[in-house]
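STRUCTURE:
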């Protein structure tokens, strides 16, 4: 009987994990809106008041939650922006930025949008560093909100981005540009050895008087004798 109970519990956990992404997706409508106008809309709909610093919210956008209860909506706002939402009483709330955030990103090739595994990701000014996984993704927890993230990979230009730009869900796509290096002009002074010259019309001339040792030989070629 105990074995049967454990099997049922295991199946139930697998069921929850399988449908969790769909449940989270159902919490949003897919429409992107600016946060301040949406907060003002909530004030009118639920007859509540929010206090916040305009500079903290004016650049933020969210995917409009499709939930109807205020607590669920505020939880979704926190999930998308990592703003701290504090309830003061039944009518008044305050929103503010926390000093640290959890961030994630997906590093891509900006030419074909392929993921870039093995890219180096560092939080400047700290010991936090890792490389992107096979999908080009990375995550950090409790990163200072104003920290600068440096992303590097061989053959690509170095990318700098602030932690605050990486708090959105799903993970922010970070395109890297290919790095091109222009080589200086190469002038060939001799062709294989002395005495062999390539002309402007692509023809090749031999000069027996100037003929030297060909690569791999230890004495001049028979043409000189």
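SEQUENCE:
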């Amino acid at each position: 009987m105990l074995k049967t109970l454990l099997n049922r519990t295991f199946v139930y956990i697998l069921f929850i994990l399988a449908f969790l992404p769909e449940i989270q997706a159902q919490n949003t409508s897919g429409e992107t809106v600016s946060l301040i106008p949406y907060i003002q809309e909530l004030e009118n709909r639920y007859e509540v008041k929010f206090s916040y610093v305009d500079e903290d919210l004016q650049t933020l956008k969210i995917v409009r939650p499709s939930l109807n209860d205020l607590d669920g909506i505020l939880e979704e706002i926190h999930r998308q922006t990592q703003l701290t939402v504090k309830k003061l009483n039944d009518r008044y709330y305050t929103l503010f930025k926390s000093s640290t955030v959890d961030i994630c990103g997906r590093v891509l090739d900006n030419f074909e949008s392929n993921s870039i595994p093995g890219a180096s990701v560092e939080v400047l000014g700290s010991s936090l560093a890792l490389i992107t996984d096979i999908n080009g993704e990375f995550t950090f927890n409790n990163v200072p909100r104003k920290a600068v993230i440096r992303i590097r990979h061989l053959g690509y230009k170095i990318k700098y981005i602030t932690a605050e730009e990486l708090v959105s869900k799903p993970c922010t796509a970070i395109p890297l540009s290919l790095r091109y290096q222009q080589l200086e002009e190469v002038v060939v002074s001799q062709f294989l050895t002395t005495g062999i010259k390539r002309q402007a019309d692509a023809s090749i001339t031999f000069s027996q008087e100037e003929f030297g040792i060909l690569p791999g030989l230890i004495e001049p070629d028979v043409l000189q004798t």
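REMARK: The two ends are 100 Å apart (CA to CA).
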